[in-house]
Amino acid sequence: QVQLVESGGGLVQAGGSLRLSCIVSGTIVSLNPMGWYRQVPGKQRELVATVSIGQNVPYYAEDVKGRFTASRDNPKNTAYLDMRNLKPEDTGVYYCNNFERQYTWGQGTQVTVSS
Question: Which one of 8, 14, 103, 109 has the fewest CB atoms closer than 10 angstroms to its CB?
Fold first, then answer.
């Protein structure tokens, strides 16, 4: 059974940075097209970034381009989302998952950006 455990969120001021981690168990992260999602109350979960796999070009939502970087550490079986120059509108719960064939969602990690 695949388990996804996100961490690294917190409260940060606008302009700050955070690194989110997603520890993956039950599958090999390098074989999964991993994505990072954000959910805010009252809205659907949205894909904000993907980790590149093979020759595929990673995807970044327009509002995070140039500020967020998705990556993975294969030996640690972990995916990361580096976020810099954070804005209040980045606030939400962040999740990781296979963006082509989603596993059971983890608990996510809360990111709150104050103005």
Answer: 14
